Hints:
Layout: H1 2-18, H2 22-33, H3 38-44, H4 53-91, H5 109-123, E1 127-128, E2 134-136, H6 137-140, E3 159-162, E4 165-167, H7 173-182, E5 187-196, E6 208-218, H8 223-238, E7 244-251, E8 254-263, E9 279-288, H9 290-295, E10 304-311, H10 312-319, H11 327-330, H12 333-336
Amino acid sequence: MKEQLGKIKAEALAEIGNAEQSNTLNDIRIKFLGKKGVLTAILRGMGDLAPEERPVIGEIVNQVRQSIEKALDDRGLTLAAREQQVKLAQETLDIFLPGRSPRMGHAHPLQLVLEEIEDIFLGMGFTIAEGPEVEQDYYNFEALNLPKDHPARDMHDSLYITPEVLLRTHTSPVQIRTMERMHPNPIRIIAPGRVYRRDALDASHSPMFLQLEGLLVDKGVTFGDLKGVLTLFAKKFYGEDRQIRMRPSFFPFTEPSAEVDVSCGCLGKGCRVCKGTGWIEILGAGSVNPIVLKMAGYDPEEVSGFAFGMGIERIAMRKYDINDIRVFYENDQRFLNQF
Ligand code: DAH
């Protein structure tokens, strides 16, 4: 029995020495000292021993128990210290780590396109003019040769505030306001801004969008000057290899009027953007109608002019290959962060 106890002790101490984690020690404690443990089994068997042997063996069992307990405690302290070290090392704060940099905002894609277009015209000597978004019927329609009963008013589904006041349906009223302010001096302005129409929001329509208007009035201005300015714009914005073409059209405030296309980057080979035609419509333009000049205070015998108007969203959509106008207004970071 003594021998057996010696073996138990040696076995226990060896296991304790090999234990690498505090919870392993718990298992060892149960295995040797628990109620169903090895040592307890020996104590139970003591009844079979001769009476004089019992105290001797009892003493040895106690010693073995004490040695095992001490070994468990010592090893427990060592392991706990080691585990603490590891934990501290893991949780160390590196105060020299660089901080998280704040997220920077950046320009909206419509703003980028608008600025690019503005820069081109500023480079040609145009200046920027502005007008109100809540506009009088007179400037939005009447003075642009769209009298109240004019059928062309049907082209605009307007948002009226009162019978005489509405959200401007285009940037063309800035032409009139600028002429009233400037006459009889020459004019060379662009007017970017928001415009409003009574359209439901879908992939290609928005009740609010951006336009950029152009107006040049001076002595001897010709349709050829308009073509020159727009050709230069197209080459600067789309690329030197581009051309424009003008198709006859009608706007009440210009005479003659044109719809202007830029040649497509596919060079007529046919692509999704130009739908195989080789041309992309970019704006409306024309010579300022003498009726409009006269109403705004200029003498059409003395001066002439040209005007043009373009939709910024459509230009931006083609530039960045965007097929849904709504993404411009939703402010989804996943979209905006791409610019
Ligand atoms: N105002 C027109 C529209 O909203 C666009 C336009 C066409 C403007 C021809 C012009 C122009 O200045 O000459 O559809």
